[in-house]
Amino acid sequence: MSHAFDSLRHELDLWGEAGRVAAFWWRDDDAVAPTQALDRLLGLSDRHGVEIGVAVIPAHMEDALADVLLSHAGAVVLQHGYAHTNHAPPGEPAVECGGSRPLEAVLEELRIGKERLAPLFGPRFAEVMAAPWNRIEAPVVGALAALGFRGVSAFGPRRAIKCAEALVVTNTHVDPINWKERRFAGNEKASSGIVGELKARRVAATGAAAESAAEPDEPLGLLTHHLVHDEGLWDFLEAFLALTSAHPAARWLTIDAAFTVVNRGARAESRPR
């Protein structure tokens, strides 16, 4: 395991030598009920002092989930669409926040979902839409602020999200699961993906990569799915959180800090360790 993290440790050292701090944030998808996997996830958050945005599916959520999440200070709730149901036309990539339905039908579902989550979780509900399958169409994005959302999250560079002028876009960038085989992608692949994202930001900060899609200060988002983790992935997360929580050139953001207008690297608020 330590060998797999050598390149990550080295990359963070380079950030430190440049006088910069890499900002990370954590989102976990598909929460609907209390499970042993969820308990294990929250235990990781607690041990390493890293706040986690738990994306909850409103239509399938059991009320008992609220008791579990509210008992963990490091868990903040995001809205994961409405029912995680695919409404894409045949042959198109899966999407719930868009697809073949009228816009009004999509927004009505999202409104209903928000009205279920907000009273249950109160201030622990972040008013952020975490798009199922990380896909959300521009007309839906453009209407989220009117529904009371302050942020949106998908996957990849945040500048790829269109019509989000009234929202804070904070995306995820690294998913350590091999979805074709529904298992952990492996230590080397997962760590190399993180290093690649960090290096792209570091190089962009020097002005040496004018055509890069990377923004130097965009927080790097870790995306997990606790219900499908295997032991290899749990071990990876333990080691990754331990390394980044201790390294002086890495900082884990609170969800509130990640979804503020100014979420810029070392200047963003972090949760005390």
CA-based gyration radius? 18 Å
Amount of beta strand: 15-25%
The N- to C-terminal Cα distance equals 24 Å
Report the count of strand segments.
Answer: 10
Number of helices, where a helix is a run of at least 4 consecutive DSSP H or I residues = 8
- Secondary-structure content class: alpha/beta
Task: Specify the CATH homologous superfamily.
Answer: Glycoside hydrolase/deacetylase
**At the first level of CATH, what is the class?**
Alpha Beta
* CATH fold-level label: TIM Barrel
Order of helices and strands: HEHEHEHEHEEEEHEHEH
* CATH architectural designation: Alpha-Beta Barrel
Tally of individual domains? 1
Largest sheet features: 8 strands, parallel
Based on CA inertia axes, which overall geometry fits? Answer: globular
Low-confidence spans: 264-273
Residue share in helix: 25-40%
**Mean of the pLDDT scores?**
92
Fold topology:
Blueprint (H helix, E strand, L loop, with lengths): L5 H12 L4 E10 L4 H13 L3 E5 L7 H7 L4 E5 L23 H19 L3 E6 L7 H7 L6 E3 L14 E2 L7 E2 L4 E2 L2 H19 L14 E5 L6 H16 L3 E3 L2 H4 L15
Parallel strand pairs: 1-2, 1-9, 1-10, 2-3, 3-4, 4-5, 5-6
Antiparallel strand pairs: 7-8
Helix pairs in contact: 1-6
